[in-house]
Write a structure and sequence with these properties.
462 residues, alpha/beta, Aspartate Aminotransferase, domain 1, Aspartate Aminotransferase, domain 2, 3-stranded antiparallel beta sheet, 16 helices, globular
Amino acid sequence: MDSTTRRSWAEPFKIKMVEPIRVMSRAERERAIGEAGFNTFLLKSDDVYIDLLTDSGTSAMSDYQWAGMMLGDEAYAGSRNFYHLEEAVRKYYGYKYIVPTHQGRAAEHILSRIAIKPGDYVPGNMYFTTTRLHQELAGGTFEDVIIDEAHDPTSVHPFKGNVDLDKLESLIKRVGPERIPYVSLAATVNMAGGQPISLANMRAVRELTNRYGIRVILDAARAVENAYFIQQRETGYAETPVATILREMCGYTDGCTMSAKKDPLVNIGGFLALNDPELFEEARNLIVVYEGLHTYGGLAGRDMEAMARGIEEAVNDDSIRARVGQVEYLGNQLLAADAPIVTPIGGHAVYLDARRFYPQLKQDEFPAQMLAAQLYLDSGVRSMERGIVSAGRDPETGEHHYPKLELVRLAIPRRVYTQSHMDVVAESVAEVYRQRRDVRGLRMTFEPKYLRFFQARFEPLG
């Protein structure tokens, strides 16, 4: 065989335990989605065949992590597992101080409470649902400063998560640096389709914010995946280990919020990491009010141990290559079937472009919500809306936010499904796309006050 021929690859693990799943009939799925108000979040997991709702907390832990669970020190104060976690964060992410939390949004809450004052502005490379809500509840206003290509699902820009430096500096000059507590930097950018930010752009953001004395806080939930994209796409990093790239990324920031239910491969957990000792003291004090003592932060010792070991495993080059490779496998299957998806293919999910699936539907007829329901009806595959429902309403006017992207996310849990499962998903998406012309939209029948995409209910129009 020619040495330049691409060889097949396989996952860098073998399966030691399995969990049965079942396929329900079409009639059963129709009943289930009706009872769920056409919201895939309200489906029972027992009614789902292949669950791509989220990659958050749904990954499979390794034998190394499960062994660590047996070493949980459940002392209320000073658990040894906290110190193992602290050591792992310092080694692989480089931050000085860590406050554990029960999951990522708790870290967002604590950060918003200690850093944001009413009237502040928080620029970021596209909003995320819980992040923006915590910023708003603290009295801040989120400002999108991502590059324009991020809002175009057909753009093939390799780093659609990049910050538009002109947008950022214009905001700083307009409102003043004293009203910007930090720049909120996501890696990768979930709502843009799992798109990465480049190291060059992170370096430029750091240089700009240094001139104005503004902090940079990283959403690090999928930073390892971002580091892999840098290795694959950014000039000069092809031979650099992912772990080294990750440390450089974090070095351009002042702290991070972490949902450890993503890259670090655990089912529950998170942390807030900081370099500023004064800000850390405020966080460590507030964590006692909302989460628990600063050495457990709402987590059992065994969960902190699993997190520490997951952080170590996540930066393995073979592991992250296989993880993103499975996402790319599904994305390439869909591209071959001419199904409209966001390009380039993201790191944790493939995103279907609901606007191109259902051009006959207005955005306030919830095309992405309907597409997720149709996919479930066809095959029992559960996905998630990432469009107007997720975008919510303007807190001042009460009007819908109308995002440019109207997407359905197929989020792939880590180390859970095989390529054969991906084939089933691809075939189902292709079938739903073939049947697209006769689909009508939805109306919302129930809307909760916050984060409506979790609990809203819908019914078909007509």
